Amino acid sequence: MTNEPRRLLVVEDEEHLAAGLKLNLELEGYHVDVANNARTVGERLVGLAGYDLIVLDVMLPDMNGFELCKRIRGSGNFVPVIMLTA
Q1: Are 21 and 31 a contacting pair, CB within 8 Å?
Q2: How many CB atoms lie within 10 A of CB 55?
Q3: Euclidean distance between CA atoms 71 and 24, whole angstroms
Q4: What is the pLDDT of residues 12-52, one digit of tens each?
Q5: What is the DSSP letter of 47?
Q6: Is 84 left (phi over 0), alpha (psi -120 to 50) or beta?
Q7: What is this structure's pTM?
Q8: Cβ within 8 Å of residue 2, ≥6 positions away
Q9: Taking Cα atoms as reference points, which of 58, 61, 3, 68 lies closest to residue 31?
Q10: Fewer CB atoms inside 10 A, N or C side of the chain?
Q11: Cα 69 to chain center, whole Å?
C-alpha cells in the first residue's frame, strides 16, 4: 500500500466553489486538480486513469456534466464520479 495522497479531479466552472472544494479536500490530505470546463477534461481523458475520484458539476459552460460523464465512461474510464448539483 502506498502513502501517496489520493488524486482527485474537481470539474467546476465557478471559481470560488472550485477553490473552496480544492482547499478543503487538500486539507484532508488529497491531491486536487481543477478543470473549469468539459473541454479541459476532454484534453486530459487519457490521463484520467490516474485519478481516484472525479467531482463533477452538472452545469458546465460548454457541456452538461451528465454528457461529460457519458464521454468519460465511453472512453473506457470507470473512475468513480460524484455529481454536484445546485
Answers
A1: no
A2: 20
A3: 28
A4: 999 999 999 999 999 999 999 999 999 988 777 665 668 89
A5: G
A6: beta
A7: 0.89
A8: none
A9: 3
A10: N
A11: 10
